[in-house]
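Mods, move this if it's the wrong board.
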Amino acid sequence: MGLKTFKPTTPSLRGMAVADFSDLTRQRPEKSLTVGKRGTGGRNNSGRITTRFRGGGVKRALRMIDFKREKDGIPAKVAQLEYDPNRSARIALLHYADGEKRYILAPVGLKVGDSLMSGPTAEFKPGNSLALADIPAGVPLHNIEIEPGKGAALVRTAGAVAEIRAKEGEHAQVKMPSGEIRMIHLKCRATIGQVGNLDHMKVKLGKAGKKRHLGRRPHNRGVSMNPVDHPMGGGEGRATGGHPQSPWGQPAKGFRTRKKNKTSSRFIIQRRKK
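Not the wrong board. Structure tokens:
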């Protein structure tokens, strides 16, 4: 994938950089693998706003991604590389030998026509899925499960990659993209390779309208509010607002929000922040 830039004929085009989508082979998704997606507007089931500055945006269809990859021993061919508006990564449409179609996350180097496989007999090439017990240390990984058979939950964003550092007992020590080293059960599955669409972080929207297309409404800063509305509001002239915090007083920088007695803490060998 490459980036497309524009001549600065308008202020919005001056800094805009968008994907050229040259790596994609299909414009419309597979209809049998899509369902309707209803926007929440940042509200919960009671109608209360739980996430501020959300709402609007273009309509999207939710692509059904196969995060389990449990079709062992059945070869599949990559039929299409597609855009997914619900995630930063690209997706690939697989046609299995038994006639079934499924979507997966497209890793770096995956091309139309490639053959993929899942299970212990699969090769160590991008797109193949195996259990951590069958993957040697040092191989780049993504799409990693936390619990066996539950489906991948880790390392799914564009450009993300992890690797196995060591194996001990029933667990493997996996280094996450954040730098955290975590113990994961050897029966959990992972996909070989790095998640594609590496240029995603270089995209610049260029104008506020594109942010609205994504469903993000204008974000009002706390320091621009009054003291009655935000702890950082008020002051004569332009004040810094003191320590960064949320409207409800929770510190925003340097304050750890993870619960001390969380059960999964025993599986974390090394924290992201040393």
